[in-house]
User: Which sequence fits this backbone?
């Protein structure tokens, strides 16, 4: 089941992106600066967050001790290369097994699965997702070069298998923590096609300035979302 009604904010956001004339440029100097920034900032962040990471892991295990506090999953990176993504576990231990029973409740079109009130999410997991704290272990992925702070969100292999040729263009760059889609209010109301168009548009627009703006926009979005 897909969502057909879109809020005015989403409709306005979608109208900004038109990737019908897609062009890709390597941009080596930008790529060097981006990787240097990713490495330095992720390393410093991980050193600062080492103790909070340990505390969060313990809380997750207390809430549900049937699986590890860190969720590891294969994702597709730049040029289709597979890597293991790290997140704080927010779902019950057998979440993948329960996915088949929830398939008819999917609220996204295309090869992506998302539902608003997923019954597999634990109590602690709900808070971690709302605050986006569950994404923090991906700092390890950024440090290792699997991901960047800014770039298209990394997809599951089974999703990429269903990609059209135009969708696969998003694999030309390193995936990231945030992107045009991630920093959009009510992003789950955006259609799969528009999401892919946003990613292709980012690839054409990508620059130091665009990345900085997206990082700040994401932080502002998270603060507003948490009521700060």
Assistant:
């Amino acid at each position: 089941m897909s969502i057909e009604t879109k809020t005015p904010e989403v409709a306005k956001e979608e109208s900004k992106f038109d990737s019908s004339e897609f062009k890709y440029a390597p941009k080596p100097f930008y790529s060097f600066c981006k990787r240097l920034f990713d490495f330095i900032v992720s390393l410093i962040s991980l050193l600062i967050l080492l103790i909070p990471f340990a505390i969060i892991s313990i809380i997750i295990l207390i809430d549900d001790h049937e699986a590890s506090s860190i969720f590891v999953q294969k994702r597709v990176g730049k040029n289709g290369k597979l890597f293991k993504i790290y997140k704080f576990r927010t779902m019950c231990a057998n979440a993948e097994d329960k996915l088949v029973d929830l398939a008819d409740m999917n609220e996204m079109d295309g090869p992506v699965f998302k539902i608003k009130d997923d019954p597999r999410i634990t109590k602690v997991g709900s808070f971690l997702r709302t605050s986006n704290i569950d994404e923090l272990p991906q700092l390890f992925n950024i440090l290792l070069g699997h991901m960047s702070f800014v770039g298209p969100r990394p997809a599951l292999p089974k999703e990429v298998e269903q990609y059209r040729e135009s969708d696969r263009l998003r694999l030309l760059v390193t995936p990231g923590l945030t992107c045009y889609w991630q920093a959009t209010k009510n992003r789950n109301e955006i259609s799969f096609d528009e999401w892919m168009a946003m990613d292709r548009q980012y690839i054409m627009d990508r620059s130091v300035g665009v990345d900085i703006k997206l990082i700040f926009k994401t932080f502002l979005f998270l603060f507003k979302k948490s009521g700060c």
Summary: The chain has one domain: 8-226.
